[in-house]
Specification:
The complex is a heterodimer. Helix content of chain A is about 40%, strand content about 20%. Chain A has 20 helices and 25 strands. In chain A, the strands form five sheets. In chain A, strands 10, 11, 12, 13, 14, 15, 16 and 22 form an eight-stranded mixed beta sheet that branches. In chain A, strands 3-4-2-5-6-7 form a six-stranded mixed beta sheet. In chain A, helix 1 runs parallel beside helix 4, helix 1 crosses helix 5 and helix 3 packs across helix 4. Chain B has a single domain, classed as Rossmann fold, CATH 3.40.50. Chain B has an eight-stranded mixed beta sheet, with helices on both faces. In chain B, a hairpin with a 5-residue loop joins strand 11 and strand 12. The relative contact order of chain B is 0.12. The interface between A and B is large, with 76 and 61 residues.
């Protein structure tokens, strides 16, 4: 028997439940109580594509040092789901803790000799106290939360306070929930004192940070960015973007006098219709967006080509999930890069931006509308399920009231009236971005015909090869111009000069920060670059050229970011070493650390791509 | 196809409407459709209707999909913004455009391939949402641009030019529109301008989803014996239930008709549609009776035309969504951005 794990503010607790059992709100209450004690946490909700009866896990990483990526491994498991028992037991670190419902005896073979088993007769406690079956189920969740809180030495009052906040307005629910928490705590104090070496100790490391999910943040960004039209079709994991947008608008976007809405949301009949309406609204001068996931982007292909070709702004939030096909709808991946970058038939290139967390989801969510208007083209905001649907502890949102919206090159009534010449597809300024008018702008000037077919710079239909080529090369130049406007990469120099670099993006950041810290402690120094947009800034290519070997860490099978780098930067593929994680769970610091350390150790050997699960 | 500009010359004696526009001001570039195409007659009817309604051309947004019919917006209203989108998806683009600016007049032009085949879903859903628009299908039962395949509105048993027989059951867009909740439904014939022009005028003045199915024979691929969408067939089987006059709001109306032969319907904007009854008992405000009439007469092989259904007090999408009176595309950072102070409060709620 290894020594029972001992740690303060640095461990992972995992709750194994079945979905539809009401465990989610109890587990979240546990997590928030730790935050209220000033201790940073990182949570991951791992759930099935299902409403009731299938396994779901809620992982809470307690990290006094403030690491918000997934660590890997579990130190304390609350095993409430018989279906996944064996797997949950197996995953536990040696010396870890297993809390289970000891109402019915479990055979010894179901445990491991190297873990600490903590039995609490949860069902018995709930059944003897409550009569209604639904109450028994729901309050059993609160009993185990009370018990785990006591085992970890948490401040019980913080949990009681949170119950009050959670059920404010439904006051009759407060008393039984508080009581259930107390039942769990009392059982531990009476029977299990000193059984657990893990503890939460009050700290001040949370600071002013906020705890929020990326989809919620992106939707708020859309409100701040001036979106007035949203057209969407329900699809996991993007649905909560549209729902959050509706909720924020209801509160922030209703005219106080008339009570009428300063926004319009339509639930479209499919994704084709959703992007069509976004394009129609943007063409007509409103800021519009849709939120979807990979399968939705697949359906939108034809329209995306139209928006690229006819140069119509559009914002698409892509909350990536596991593909291809239906794939893993409730698991995370970064596997829509090539799909979005080159969406639609013919030669296209699309702008993508990569928020690393909910803070940037808000910032980029708002920025995307400026980019769309400025560049007159679709902008993909590339989130994923990990950022989108998990609550993250991040810097508070910021907004500068001095900031005006960049509506791009619009020709006004006054300018037309004053005789300004207007041709829709003429590159007047030399940056390949042309001027546009909004329908209805002027009684006799400024009208033009928008079409997906080839046209000349006067917006007239043309099948002349020279007109076509002029247009297509201008679109390519416009993509170059885009580099000036999109968020640039974040580059970090290692403490010591190094020949090695690592490139990463999006939700990988959290695990990467921690992984680099761990590598540094092992004496491994690597320069890093976080890609924040496509097209790549020239500094991205410079970074690659400045290093002998560059790791590209991404959460997909085919090294899609690497492919984009090779393709767009015309770089020798041999310079890259791919670190790939694509089993649908968020990448961990442990995985990154191990992979990079091993590759570097094996250096000299022709190690290029190792596919990891 | 190449772009052909029309000469800008205007004869000084050309008639002007109340806004000071001549008919020429409502024209577009020269049509590149086949000589005698029914679609060109519909374009002419649209021009006439807009001229008579004194609409400023820039207040119209003309939207279309793909196909011969969808090319036509280039051939009328050259001073209006136009959008030739993708095949079968005009309804969603029009919906979005309408959301952005409730104050423009939206004219969707589509065909039977565009609306009854690839775009049937979008057509129905757009109508369902109560989008304020005039949606015209130029219905010829055939794919013209790809040279003569049957479309989904071709009648079973209809013969193609190449000699084949259509075995599929037809989709009746008028019935679809009624079922989906269109509040103005008409059918006409491209060869019957006196019926079509007032129908378009009434539709443009309607504050809700207005649909007009216009049978528009394809002279190149579907105007032969054995086709049920040919000029001759439609003329022979045209069952017009009414003819109409359209009066803009508060125009003085002189009545000199026999009692029982005329029905006046006032729309919410005050405009009046005067229906001259042809079929005795036909009441276009009775939806169930309309569907019944359509089904019965379709069985007989007749093409029912006229103003078939009208809800004089429709609710449009913006009313249903309770949007502000100012078009959404006019709102700026001041109206739309909650600002830094509100964000502080929001941040607190996430702690």
């Amino acid at each position: 028997m290894p020594k029972p794990l001992e740690a303060t503010n640095d461990f992972v607790v995992k709750f194994a439940n079945t979905n539809g059992s009401g465990s989610a709100s109890a587990n979240e209450l546990f997590a928030r109580a730790i935050l209220r004690m000033g201790v940073p946490i990182a949570v991951r909700n791992i759930f099935p594509s299902n409403i009731q009866g299938l396994p779901t896990w809620y992982e809470v990483r307690v990290s006094g040092e403030g690491w918000i990526g997934r660590r890997g491994g579990v130190d304390f498991v609350v095993a409430m789901n018989g279906q996944t028992w064996d797997k949950d037991v197996k995953e536990l670190e040696p010396g870890g803790y297993l809390l289970y419902d000891s109402t019915k005896p479990m055979p010894q073979s179901k445990f491991r000799p190297d873990i600490n088993v903590i039995g609490v007769p949860l069902t018995e406690m709930a059944n003897s106290r409550y009569d209604i079956p639904r109450d028994r189920q729901l309050l059993k969740n609160m009993i185990y939360i009370g018990a785990v809180g006591a085992l970890l030495g948490m401040d019980h009052e913080e949990m009681v306070k949170l119950v009050g906040e959670q059920y404010a307005g439904k006051d009759r629910l407060i008393k039984p929930n508080v009581e259930a928490l107390g039942l769990g705590r009392d059982y531990v104090l009476e029977h299990l004192k000193g059984k657990c070496g893990l503890s939460v100790k009050r700290s001040d490391k949370v600071g002013d940070r906020i705890f929020v999910a990326g989809n919620d943040a992106a939707a708020l960004g859309a409100v701040y960015g001036g979106a007035t039209v949203a057209a969407w079709y329900p699809i996991t994991p993007s649905t909560s973007v549209a729902e959050a947008f509706a909720a924020h608008c209801k509160r922030l976007r209703v005219d106080p006098e008339t009570k009428k809405n300063l926004y319009a949301i339509i639930q479209s009949e499919d994704e084709l219709s959703a992007i069509g309406s976004v394009i129609g609204a943007s063409w007509n001068g409103a800021r519009a967006f849709t939120a979807t996931s990979g399968p939705g982007i697949s359906l939108m292909q034809e329209f995306l080509g139209l928006a690229y070709s006819a140069e119509i702004p559009a914002v698409i939030f892509d909350i990536q999930r596991g593909g291809p096909s239906t794939g893993m709808p409730t698991r995370t991946q970064q596997s829509d890069l090539t799909l979005c970058a080159y969406s639609s038939h013919g030669d296209t290139k699309h702008v993508m931006i990569f928020p690393q967390d909910p803070h940037e989801a808000f910032e980029f969510g708002a920025l995307s509308f400026d980019l769309a208007d400025r560049l007159q083209t679709p902008i993909f905001v590339m989130l994923d399920l990990d950022i989108g649907m998990n609550d993250w502890l991040v810097k508070p949102f910021k907004w500068d009231d001095a900031k005006a919206y960049d509506r791009g090159k619009l020709v006004s009534y006054e300018e037309l009236e004053a005789g300004k010449e207007f041709w829709r597809y003429m590159d007047v300024d030399g940056d390949a971005i042309c001027y546009r008018t909004i329908p209805g702008v002027h009684p006799t000037k400024g009208a033009y015909f928008t079409r997906g077919s080839s046209r000349n710079k006067y917006a007239k239909y043309s099948e002349e090869g020279s007109d076509y080529v002029e247009n297509m090369t201008r679109l390519l130049r416009k993509f170059e111009t885009a580099k000036k406007y999109v968020p640039g990469p974040v580059i970090r120099q290692a403490k010591q000069p190094t020949r090695h670099g690592v490139i990463y993006f999006g939700s990988t950041s959290a695990a990467m920060d921690e992984g680099l810290d761990a590598l540094e402690k092992q004496g491994i120094h690597i320069d890093t670059l976080r890609v924040r947009a496509f097209p790549f800034a020239d500094s991205v290519i410079d970074f690659i050229n400045a290093h002998d070997q560059v790791f590209v860490v991404e959460q997909n099978r085919d090294a899609q970011m690497r492919a984009l780098l090779v393709n767009e930067g015309a770089i020798d593929p041999a310079r890259f070493i791919s670190i790939l994680h694509y089993d649908g769970t968020p990448i961990t610091a442990r995985f990154i650390t191990k992979e990079i350390a091993e590759r570097l150790k094996a250096f000299g050997k022709p190690a290029r791509t190792k596919v990891a699960s | 196809m190449t772009y052909l500009a029309k000469p800008k010359f205007r004869h000084p004696s050309l008639e002007k409407n109340e806004r000071g526009f001549t008919r020429r001001d409502y024209e577009g570039s020269i049509s590149t459709l086949c000589a005698g195409c029914g679609h060109d007659s519909i374009s002419a009817a649209i021009i006439q209707a807009c001229f008579e309604l004194n609409i400023e051309p820039h207040r119209i947004a003309k939207m279309s999909g793909i196909g011969c019919s969808s090319k036509t917006p280039d051939y009328f209203l050259g001073q209006s913004h136009g959008f030739n989108s993708v095949h079968g998806r005009m309804p969603s683009v029009l919906t979005g455009a309408n959301l952005a600016n409730k104050n423009l007049i939206y004219l969707g032009v589509s065909g039977d391939g565009d609306s009854a085949s690839i775009g049937l879903g979008q057509f129905v859903h757009c109508v369902r949402r109560g989008v304020n628009m005039t949606y015209i299908t130029e219905n010829n039962g055939v794919y013209g641009l790809t040279k003569g395949q049957f479309s989904a509105t071709a009648d079973r048993g209809s013969k193609s030019k190449a000699g084949g027989t259509n075995t599929d059951s037809p989709i009746d867009l008028v019935s679809m529109a009624l079922l989906a909740g269109a509040t103005f439904v008409g059918r006409s014939f491209s060869g019957d301008k006196p019926q079509l022009v007032p129908l378009i005028k009434a539709a443009l003045s309607h504050n809700g989803p207005a649909f007009i199915d216009v049978i528009s024979p394809c002279v190149a691929f579907n105007n032969h014996a054995g086709s049920t969408k040919s000029f001759d067939f439609v003329r022979d089987h045209n069952d017009a239930v009414n003819r109409l006059d359209f009066f803009e709001g508060r125009a003085e109306i002189v009545t000199d008709y026999e009692p029982g032969t005329v029905q006046d319907v006032e729309q919410h904007d005050g405009s009046i549609i005067r229906l001259h009854k042809i079929a005795d008992s036909y009441d276009p405000t009775n939806k169930v009776a309309t569907m019944n009439y359509l089904a019965t007469h379709h069985e007989k092989g007749e093409v029912v035309t006229g103003l078939l259904y009208l809800d004089p007090n429709p609710k449009d999408m913006h009313q249903l969504l309770r949007t502000v009176d100012v078009p959404l595309n006019r709102l700026g950072v001041k109206e739309l951005c909650p600002g830094a102070k509100a964000l502080d409060t929001i941040n607190d709620e996430y702690r």
